[in-house]
Amino acid sequence: MNMLKRRKGESPGGARRRGRRGAATVELAALAPILIFLLLGAIDVGLFVNAGQIVSNASREGARLAARNATLNVSEVESSVLAYLANSFPGVPPATLDAAVQVNVADAYGGAVPGGDLTTISSGSPVSVEVVVQFDSVRWLSAIGVLDNKTLGMTTVMRRE
User: Fold this and answer.
1) b/e for 110-134, b at 16 or more Cβ within 10 A?
2) Domain contains 131
3) Is residue 74 part of a domain?
4) Which helix (H) or strand (E) element contains residue 128?
5) Cβ distance 159 to 118 under 8 Å?
6) Does residue 6 belong to any structural domain of this protein?
7) Is the CB of residue 84 less than 8 Å from the CB of residue 56?
8) Which residue has the higher pLDDT, 11 or 149?
9) Quick one: which of 137, 127, 156 has its CA closest to 99?
10) Which range of residues forms the domain containing residue 144?
11) Domains in the chain: how many in total?
12) What is the per-residue pLDDT across 13-62, written as a single tens digit (0 to 9) for each?
């Protein structure tokens, strides 16, 4: 027989629980900022990886265009890459995107294309397109400073038709 007196409606361990009221609230208040910081960090890293994939795709699209015989100059490749990035990052103003993106088209030896004329690159020779983007200009979450001032770059090489 239980010798302890219980209050009406109280469970057997109720006397011990009465002294812990609010402990869960205090624990949540202590851990919530850390959990929110981790969540925002995971979202920011995900955005970084996604932006890296978009830059890779833009470089590939530029190289496809540069490899075609129908493409005559570097400005066509640059405008194609910028249009691809503008479609991929619709919330970024075009002026900001133009300032944050660097497109380099090079010949087989890594040198600049003379006069921007792609017809100077012979058929079968490689042509490379490098796209470099400042991550700060395309990110929408800047609360976490871990990825500040990072750049995303990709180079794609294809043979000219």
Assistant:
1) eeebeeeebeebeeeebbbbbbbbb
2) yes
3) yes
4) strand 126-134
5) no
6) no
7) no
8) 149
9) 137
10) 20-159
11) 1
12) 555 556 677 888 898 899 999 999 889 888 888 999 999 999 999 999 99
